[in-house]
Write a structure and sequence with these properties.
Blueprint: H1 7-15, E1 19-22, E2 34-36, E3 39-41, E4 44-47, H2 56-64, E5 66-71, E6 74-82, H3 90-101, H4 106-113, H5 115-118, E7 122-126
Antiparallel strand pairs: 1-2, 1-5, 3-4, 4-7, 5-6, 6-7
Helix pairs in contact: 3-4
């Protein structure tokens, strides 16, 4: 199954410490960019927050299903799918977070792979 990501984009995302995400405002303009951690697993791209919120970038992205991301030389409109309830997907995404961000120590990474964060998993697909 194609995920829409080129190998160049996946490589750039995997090597990026963060990406920046912005969500659409009601008037159609793009909101403020916020830096967040990003991981890749099985050619898919995932982001999370510490815990589910109805406000801020996470609430707007989950509600609208749309966002724009920036990383390296790339700026891409993405479809946002809330996959936080997919228990089969979670172990691979948790492991991707542990592998990529483990250097920050368990106190930090454990929050990103805990139950609250796991429920906030969003899959990003290029529009």
């Amino acid at each position: 199954m194609s995920t829409g990501w080129s190998m160049d984009e996946l490589s750039a995302l995997e090597s990026a410490d963060e990406l920046e995400i912005a969500t659409p405002r009601p008037d159609g303009t793009v909101g403020r960019y916020v830096p967040i951690w990003v991981v890749c697993s099985s050619r898919h791209v995932y982001v999370r927050t510490w815990h589910r919120r109805d406000t801020g970038w996470f609430g707007r992205a989950a509600r609208t299903g749309d966002a724009r991301i920036r990383f390296g030389e790339h700026e891409i409109d993405v479809i946002v799918d809330d996959v936080g309830s997919d228990v089969d997907l979670r172990p691979a995404v948790d492991e991707a977070y542990r592998t990529k961000y483990g250097r920050y120590g368990s106190a930090t990474v454990d929050r990103m792979v805990g139950d609250d964060a796991g429920r906030t998993t969003l899959r990003l697909t290029p529009r």
